[in-house]
Amino acid sequence: MEIKEKITFKDFLHRKNITVYSLSKATGIPRTTIIDWKNNKRNLLQTSLLNLIKLSNYFNCSVEELLEELYYV
Fold first, then answer.
1. Can you give the pTM of this predicted structure?
2. What contacts 29, CB < 8 A, 6 or more positions away?
């Protein structure tokens, strides 16, 4: 079994070299929402399904894969 390291959304964006602005522009998700995820003011697990789908489309993965990478659920 592979042990994964839990990372923050901020670290996730940094590792992928993605800015809040570029992610917002590409997905249509408000910058304020992304900033809240980045600063741990909002939990990505409690966001709308629509936003999770937008993120998974942007990162070319399933919603499940996205959440596994961030939260190893």
1. 0.86
2. 23, 51, 54, 55
Phi, psi of 54 (to 5 degrees): -60, -45
Q: 20 and 34 in contact (C-beta within 8 Å)?
A: yes
What distance in Å separates the CA atoms of residue 36 and residue 38, rounded to the nearest whole number? Answer: 5
pLDDT along the chain (73 residues), means of 10: 72 95 98 95 92 97 91 65
Residue with tokens 């522009």: 25
Q: Which of 50, 37, 48 shows the shortest CA–CA distance to 8?
A: 37
Type of residue numbered 33: T
Which residues, in sequence order, are CB contacts of 54 under 8 Å at separation 6+?
27, 28, 29
Contact status, residue 56 vs residue 62, Cβ threshold 8 Å:
yes
